[in-house]
Amino acid sequence: MGEIFVLAEHRRGELRDVTFEMLGKGQELAAAMDAPLAAVLLGHNVDGFAAELARHANQVLVIADERLEHFNSEAYQQVLAELITQRKPSLVLMGHSAYGMDLAPSLATQLDLPLVTDCVGLEFEDRDLFAVREMYGGKVSARVAFRPSDVYVATVRQAAFPFEEGAPLGGEIIAVDSPLTEEIAYRRFLEYVEAAVGEVDITQADVVVAAGRGIKEQENMSLVEKLAQALGGVVAGSRPVVDAGWLPPERQVGQSGKTVKPKLYLAVGISGASQHLVGMRASSTIVAINKDPDAPIFKVAHYGIVDDLFKVVPALTQQLEAK
């Protein structure tokens, strides 16, 4: 079986988290199929990235070119099309990010390869690849089959696969000549504009305390704020809380909000609709407080408290403040 490629995604001097998430899943797939795992790194002056990636892959294929310093889907497509044609990997993984959504469809079309996007699950069965995708706003998980092919392409949802640091693989770093021969004048990088994140970026927090419809009134948000402060965390919310105007849109967690994966996610009065779970289920530890024992949130929570949040939250805050 051919290699499994993981396209390393980097931006502004940092490898993106989705790269390591894909490498973790790639290791699992490679072990199951007895195939080598290769990280594919495109860029300029990326030796530091290559060394970091070598810890998590059997090989790091480095294509260094000044024209690849910034992401350009046209340039990336030319390079990857040549590399895939030469090496014929069994699977090419990309993040379902702005990069992957721009690049994967045109690359798959050029090479006439089957493509499945926004995957939350991937597995091989007798060399045939199957993917899991969420449909109807996350209400249904569909297991889909690719048409048979020697090479498959898939984009992976960010935070879909947890990454755990394992023993270093000590992958070989291999320099590959760039096939680019000229500048792509009609499509070029101008500048990077960071999206406004408001006062707090909940995606970077280690502790997130999220309020749901069960908080009932805006005045009760102070309970959640005090608990978050006692934990050294930030306050977030589900869509009903944001729609009610109790929190700004940049604090919303879920399919139509932001995806978070903190060390601790504490859900207060959140029932756990599928649209919300999409945005937080990759959290390391999930604690749910809800008086409904059948609330869907308890299916993903590591710890659950079935009780009235108006009794539990003040008591919990008091205990934390005492410590």
Describe the structure.
The chain is of the alpha/beta class and 323 residues long. The chain has two domains: 4-175, HUPs (Rossmann fold), CATH 3.40.50.620; 202-322, Rossmann fold (3-Layer(aba) Sandwich), CATH 3.40.50. It contains eight helices and 17 strands. The strands form four sheets. It has a seven-stranded parallel β-sheet with strand order 7-11-6-1-4-5-12, with helices on both faces. It is elongated, with a radius of gyration of 22 Å.
List the helices and strands and how they pair.
Blueprint: E1 4-7, E2 10-11, E3 14-15, H1 17-33, E4 37-43, H2 47-53, E5 59-64, H3 73-87, E6 91-95, H4 98-111, E7 115-119, E8 121-125, E9 128-135, E10 140-145, E11 152-156, E12 172-175, E13 207-211, H5 221-231, E14 234-237, H6 239-243, E15 264-268, H7 274-277, E16 285-289, E17 303-305, H8 309-322
Parallel strand pairs: 1-4, 1-6, 4-5, 5-12, 6-11, 7-11, 13-14, 13-15, 15-16, 16-17
Antiparallel strand pairs: 2-3, 8-9, 9-10
Low-confidence stretches: none
The side-by-side strand order for the widest beta sheet comes to 7-11-6-1-4-5-12
Under CATH, the topology of the largest domain can be stated as Rossmann fold
* Residues in β-strands, percent: 25-35%
Shape: elongated
Could you tell me the number of beta strands?
Answer: 17
What is the count of distinct domains? 2
Question: What integer value in Å does the Rg equal?
Answer: 22 Å
For the sheet with most strands, the description reads: 7 strands, parallel
**CATH class division of the largest domain:** Alpha Beta
Query: How far from one another are the termini?
Result: 56 Å
Q: CATH-wise, what's the superfamily of the largest domain?
A: HUPs
- Name the helicity range: 25-40%
At CATH level 2, the architecture of the largest domain is: 3-Layer(aba) Sandwich
What structural category do the secondary elements indicate? alpha/beta
Number of helices: 8
Write the H/E string, N to C: EEEHEHEHEHEEEEEEEHEHEHEEH
Please tell me the overall pLDDT: 93
